Amino acid sequence: MYLYGQEEPEEGSADSYTSRPSESDVSLEEDREAVRREAQRQAQAQLEKAKTKLVAFAVRTNVGYSAALDNDVPVPGMAISFEAKDFLHVKEKFSNDWWIGRLVKEGCEIGFIPSPVKLENMRLQSDQKTKQGKYHSSKSGGNSSTSIGDVVPSSRRSTPPSSALDLDASGLDAEDIDPQANQRTPITGVNNVTSPQSKEKRMPFFKKTEHVPPYDVVPSMRPVVLVGPSLKGYEVTDMMQKALFDFLKHRFEGRISITRVTADISLAKRSVLNNPSKHAIIERSNTRSSLAEVQCEIERIFELARTLQLVVLDADTINHPAQLGKTSLAPVIVYVKISSPKVLQRLIKSRGKSQAKHLNVQMVAADKLAQCPPELFDVILDENQLEDACEHLSDYLEAYWRATHPPSSNPPNPLLSRTMASAALPSSPAPVSNLQVQVLASLQPNLHFWHIEDNGENQVICDNHISLEMETFNYLPASG
User: pTM for the full model?
Assistant: First the structure.
């Protein structure tokens, strides 16, 4: 039966072609695919060329990033995932959203690193999803996966920074955001419980929200800093550290720069150097170094690290890891530890009255180091024998060398020839004191510092004093 209003569509009508793509649509899709493939080919070619390029700069991450959840990578599968507090070597800028570099870990190859601009955009998208999820929490549960970590910073630029402080111009300290690493009280957040007085002082509608930057620029090679067993400037500490310096000099010959730092580099906090209003306060205080001298030292250390040689700092003023926690140096902290206070006390007294009269201050400094959590140190040398301590430190630095020098990237470094010539010179024009000469002379009859035995419950010093010549520091054969 024929029903009105249900006429069948005629042949050739527009409705019969709705499911068929037109030739123009097919052609447009093919063009897009060709453009995408060409862009991937060019990105892959640029990635290969970057393998032999020098490291432009290095960063320490303040956030985590998962490449598996990001579909916007120039070459699929070539993005680099990282966690907070990882280190990245950046070779060059690829685009506003991507840098080219690698994770500083053994076995990690070159890839694409999200720029601060991209991380900021991802943060904004994540915040938007979170706000939308509040209205639909009963249905969706508010659980959405993103490729960026929980703490996502803002950024001001995507191009590689021109100096060590470019990414830190906001004046924020990464350590202030990470209280566990620095044993500090967490900063009070917007949602934290506050007293009524603090609420009255606050202007919630106009409060500016600040975010920690995603990256902190650090030296391309993390400088090695020794602390302990007590205070520098006293014979026991100076002699034990001098023995390690001399071992490193021979063990890593041609790959290491050991330089003395006389300026107080603990003043090089990012919040101070990036805030001119604090300069006058520091200058008026009784400090042994001016900010200009400190800034000069920091730049010199960054320049040494650009050679990708191991950099060891003989820093006169650094006796505790917290002194460098807020600086941009991100050092490798090596703790030379004497576990037994009685052993340290006897060592200090054995140096004569001139050292024994400063026994208390040295013991207090050693106790402060012993109270630090192990997480504040990268290496803890608590061995009883010098040879064992040297091998422990050598194994760590060899692993770090392999992590920073992948087999696929070994370009000649033109900075090395001109930088190594001045690397061993002291930072200040003043002549070096004769302390090292005194140490060498006194070490001839007193090399028992590192020869400690475990006799019952307490450690005691060996009674046999070993007398050796000046060349004693060549105790292990140097290897290339």
Answer: 0.71
